[in-house]
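User: Please look over both lines:
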Amino acid sequence: MAHLYLTRKRIQNQQSEAVLSDAFSNSIAINPPHLRQLGSNRSRSLSSHFFDDHNVEDLDMYCSRLISCNWMEFVTRYYRFANILTIQKTMSISNSTAIRMELIQLQLTLTIASFAISTETLVAGWVGMNIPCALYQKNGIFEIFTGGHTLGCLLIFLLVLEYARWTKLIDA
């Protein structure tokens, strides 16, 4: 813990340099009273300097606050990132939902069209049977009947499509 007091280490290095420079200049070195040295009253293993337990508690409190602040910053950024991911997932789901809705609307439109075509096919099948009928002998009646029935199926398609738009099954 004592080695984390960087300011005091710098001051001690300056004091050591001052002592060494004074020793080379044959003068007596005196430590100023306002500068306290680092070290431990209990152990002098790594350093010849000493410090009191109160300073270690201050350093421990400072480190705890620093870790706490960094942890809070980490948690804040984590939740922001999680929120961004949630928003992106929601956007992708809504985009895929919009595409899915367009495909459903296209399918509904094609189903309505196939219904209209199937009614015309049904009538064409009835007319195409080999059953004797008096209408087969009249000239020009087949073209009128087929054209009228095709227009009727187109009208059925448009009416059912408009009903689907009116009930908001299909966007306009």
